[in-house]
Amino acid sequence: MSEDDPAARDGDRVPLARDPWSSLRALTPARIALGRAGAALPTDEVLAFGLAHARARDAVQAALDVSRLAARLAVDGWASAVVGSAAGDRATYLRRPDLGRRLDAASPARLATHAGRGCDLALVIADGLSALAAQSHAADLLLALRPLLDPAWRLAPICIATQARVALGDDIGALLGARLVAVLIGERPGLSSPDSLGVYLTFDPRPGRTDAERNCLSNIRPAGLPIAMAADRLAWLLHAALRRGLTGLALADDSENRLPEP
Fold first, then answer.
1. What is the mean pLDDT of the chain?
2. Is 176 within 8 Å of 119 (Cβ atoms)?
3. For the domain that residue 103 is a member of, what is the CATH number?
4. Enclosing domain of residue 103
5. For the segment 79-97, what is each residue's pLDDT rounded down to a tens digit?
6. Which residues are paired to 122 by β-bridges?
7. Cβ–Cβ under 8 Å, residues 164 and 90
C-alpha cells in the first residue's frame, strides 16, 4: 500500500467490499460471497477458514470410541462385533490405504463365531476418514433403518471396524456369508463437512469387488442428507439389491420415483 493511498494515511481502515452474491450465502454452506478488504479476505473469513481446516484435520485424526458405540448399539437392541484392518494405527492407515482394505490377523476368528449359515445383510460401521461422522450418525441411521427392513431377513451382528476403508466390507461380508453388505463409513472431511457419513452397498461381497459394483449414499448428516431421508433411500436400495441380485452401475437409485403406497 503506497503513501498516496488514502487508506494508508491517518490510520484509516480499508473498507469492506460487500459481495454481490451475499443474498445467496444463506442457501449454501459453500464458501461464497466472502467479501474483501482491499486485495485480501476479511479477517473474520480468514479465521473461519482456519477453524474449518482445523476441524477437518481433527476429524481425520480422531479415534472411534468403540466401547461407547457398542454400548449405544446394545441399548438400541443390536448385537455387535469389533474388527480391525491390517493398518494397525492411524499413521499407517493414512499412508497405506491398501492395508485398510484387509482385515487384520485376529478378526477372521472373531467373525467365524457369527458366520453360522450366512445372512441376508451384514451391516458395518467403519471409522474411515472421519470417526466423528461414524460416532455421531451411524447408530441413529441404523435405528431409523431397522423398521424399514424386511422382517424375514437374517441379519449378522453389526461389525464395528477400525482403521477401515470401504473395501473392508468385502472381507467381512464374505466371512459372514452375507448376500449383501452395507458399510457406514466416515467420509473424507471437507471445509464445511467434517462429520459426513457415507453408506456403500455391495451385493455378493468378496475380495476383489470394485467401486463400480457398489452403490453409495453420501453426505448423511443434519446439514446434508437428513437421517430419516437417508434411512428411507437406504432401505429402498437394500430391498432392490436383494430382489434384483446386484448393486453398482446396474442398480439405479429410483427411490424418488416410487409410486405412493395405497
1. 89
2. yes
3. 3.40.50.11240
4. 65-251
5. 999 999 999 899 999 999 9
6. 181
7. no
